[in-house]
């Protein structure tokens, strides 16, 4: 019924590392929730469901806990039902999560021959005899990536996270998405192994697209929780890049490189859990104090909320992959795995891997710009609203949750060798040779790539160097006696006011214009009127609303197509008798035309006669009986 191998225990640890700080934070957040019993009941059921998924030993138990996880998270989104937007978001999430569940159910029905109580080893035996293994692969992709939030199944994330209570957002983004990653590890290794090369290329490409699309939309967001939700799409993409490279190397027989790439993906899975949970906690603290998710209404919160500002800064450094953070180390490993593929002579890989390198490099640069904006607009500068001016630090329990999660994040950076040793055991348990000694051949001070062009990084030396430079700057500050500030923070050395300081919209403007083809923004520019007349020198109001491209181009097109088909099916079901007769007659004529053309028995006189008869029947089909 349950399995406790190394892979399961690693993800149980991930869940607990994300849940324990969240319990403190949630307890402090609870007084601000109206439906407390509803929240607590589904909150603890949600945690139990996630743990149940990663220790399930057969399909029936797995699907039970998977559905429980979906239903409880759906109810948690509905905790604060205060507007129609929340209900609409919850409905959208419900549809998307059960869309994925449908494909998982199809997958399990095939690989179990209908007996959902058999274990994973027997599933592998059945799957190996299935005639269309690629179909099973796409069932897994649609089932798990719809929950993980990879492009193009990501559309629910920017809606669900902003509407959910902040502790729930931290759990959903930090922990629940990783349960879907567990599912991919478990069933691709235990049921569908070995893989063809094309599967790895598909996952690599989806990862590159997800990372790039996620960060581009995050940069244009001014809703702080929607911004973080889009960064979840980005980081799931980074995990998938590592996962795809692991599959590609394994298919080519490069097992050492394959294990290295898989370990990088697993390491980034842990890292994303830590810094994204902490970022959502910080965003929730700011939201609680300012009563708004709009960053344009923040500013100057670093003095009023120092603990929140410091923990948010540490998480922002990590998600931006700046050295010596844990986010930098896992992305360094993923880069090294891709750069180690230069000797592979395969035209598909020579296109896919450089694209993934380009996407990951651009993602790294844009992520830094995004969190300079997020942190600078939120915590630096002057207050942009009365609520920001009167904000203060959150309560003890919420601060405790953020501090504990900061310690989890720092442990991933300071004790990277110990985590890597544990991750190495996961893949030894999956039948791979250990590569830990190859990554740390000189002890814990130097981390090596295992590729032929491998690099070396020293996380602890980088950390001590950072501390040394910081101490030197503080010493110089004291020596030169700099005690007074001439101008306000974030003002570029000039006097400024709340209305003239830099804004989130202005910061993202150049990048938004460069990617205008993707964003397709609606720009609203209004001037204040005085006594009914527009004044040339009046205060102007400028807003930019970015269109969600995938919803507009893909999902709305599909919805319109389904609605059109439904309309004509309805019309067909309500035809008069003459219309049915005309429709059947037309189908017979089409078949006759086709036969004449392909059998070369064609006559213009016959064609004109049959065409004339068809036009009459089409007219009857359109007009119908006149009563």
Write up this protein.
This protein is mostly helical and about 625 residues long. The protein has 25 helices and 6 strands. It has helices spanning about 5-30, 35-55, 60-75, 85-110, 120-125, 135-150, 155-165, 165-190, 195-220, 225-250, 255-290, 300-305, 305-320, 325-340, 345-380, 385-390, 395-415, 415-430, 435-440, 460-480, 505-515, 515-520, 550-575, 575-600, 605-625, and strands spanning about 445-450, 455, 520-525, 530, 535, 540-545. The strands form 3 sheets. Strands 1-2 form a two-stranded antiparallel sheet. Strands 3-6 form a two-stranded antiparallel sheet. The chain has a two-stranded antiparallel sheet with strand order 4-5. Strand 1 and strand 2 form a beta hairpin. The longest helix has about 35 residues, at about 255-290. The N and C termini lie far apart (about 65 Å). The relative contact order is 0.08. The mean pLDDT is about 85.
Brief synopsis:
The protein is built from 25 helices and 6 strands. With 627 residues, it is mainly alpha-helical.
